[in-house]
Amino acid sequence: MSLLPDTPWLNALIGLLQAAQLGLLRLLAWLGLAATSHGQPAWPWALRLSGENLLIDLGQARRAALTLGVLCAALIVLLLALLWRRRRLLLIACVPLLLALAPWPDAQVLLVPAHPTSFHHSPSGFTAASIARGQALYASHCVSCHGADGRGRGPLAAAQAVWPPSFGGPLLWNRADGDLLWRVLHGMQNRRGMPTMPAFRDRLDERDAWALIDFMKALGAGQSLLATGLWARPIGLPDVTVRCEDRPPRGLASWRGQRLRIVAAGATAAPLEDPRLVTVRLRPPGETPGSPPAGCTADAEAWQAFALIAGTEQLAGVQLLADREGWLRARNAPGQAGWSEEDLLCRAEASPGKPAAAVDGLSALIARMDAEPVRFVKGGFVH
């Protein structure tokens, strides 16, 4: 699972870099100094700060943190110079000395190429409806190169200038969603400027491109699970409308802050309600909904979205657990006797501490989920 190292200063540094760039972009948009790209404020520079590289190179991350400290000290010295006239010249002379002594990080590590859409976010979020739309678009425009399983082994893959990447690998997750949007609509080129992926802006609009990205996330999560037995990188719950008996419909995302259990209806009996979890049932395709359905049931489009994420076409009987932040964390296969910590498929490489002993498998699993929160960085941005 793509967790940040358990280092508070590094978490704070990456979050600060992200917040500073987003804040600057919003300020420019508010002042009318930022152009618009695909309906959102456009990043005006060809480079941006990279949290992802600092996560990999801790030495450069330390240098970046120390440099920020020196810059803050230099700013304080300038403020003192404005207030202390007798020592003004001396204080001002100290500023270039501080800047010269700062351990500036390597620009090639700190800065990465950016696009006008680098800080864009999906207007609709990650939804089951968007995944379904993206699946249809993928079959029409992408499957011949990327393959039905997203592993880059489609019938036309070998004829491309660069072999298409696997969505189950790290490349998809190392790029910000806004950068993926740009590549889908505007294509990709190699260092010589030769096209390696065609542009689709003449065939797809922004909504279509976001739908394709959502589908690629779901497909990539499922393929990672098939290949490694884990969700190597965190995948969130796809939002979908849920109907709970005679209560008004609500989105799955509205339960953020509570643990969720997703149950794909099957031959086995539905699990009993549990006060530690909100249980939502998935209705298989073709099933006629009850009137009213018992408990909480997601709309039919959720079935295929969760089947993709779970990496299976046989979803019936599968149970999935999501933590309070909306990350899918565990899976229970049909016919499996109870839960255990082995069902935790989105986990830290090294646990920050052993949870207290639990009286049953589900309690142990919940305790470990709570003890290992997800701190996810995608494309250098903290989620």
Query: How much helix, percentage-wise, in residues?
Result: 25-40%
Runs with pLDDT <50, length 5+? none
Helical segment count = 12
CATH architecture of the largest domain: 3-Layer(aba) Sandwich
Radius of gyration: 24 Å
How are the strands of the biggest sheet laid out side by side?
Answer: 8-7-11-10-9-12-13
Fold and architecture overview:
The protein is an alpha+beta fold and 383 residues long. It is built from twelve helices and 15 strands. It has a seven-stranded mixed beta sheet, covered by helices on one side. The protein has three domains: 8-113, no CATH class; 128-228, Cytochrome c-like domain (Cytochrome Bc1 Complex, Chain D, domain 2, Orthogonal Bundle); 241-382, 3-Layer(aba) Sandwich (Glutaredoxin), CATH 3.40.30. Helix 6 packs across helix 10, helix 6 packs across helix 11 (302-310) and helix 9 (177-186) crosses helix 10. It has helices at residues 8-30, 51-56, 58-83, 88-101, 107-110, 128-141, 143-146, 171-174, 177-186, 206-228, 302-310, 361-371, and strands at residues 36-37, 40-41, 47-49, 111-113, 188-189, 195-197, 241-244, 250-251, 260-264, 278-282, 296-298, 319-322, 328-332, 377-378, 381-382. Strand 7 and strand 8 (250-251) form a beta hairpin. Helices cover 39% and strands 12% of the residues.
Topology:
Blueprint: H1 8-30, E1 36-37, E2 40-41, E3 47-49, H2 51-56, H3 58-83, H4 88-101, H5 107-110, E4 111-113, H6 128-141, H7 143-146, H8 171-174, H9 177-186, E5 188-189, E6 195-197, H10 206-228, E7 241-244, E8 250-251, E9 260-264, E10 278-282, E11 296-298, H11 302-310, E12 319-322, E13 328-332, H12 361-371, E14 377-378, E15 381-382
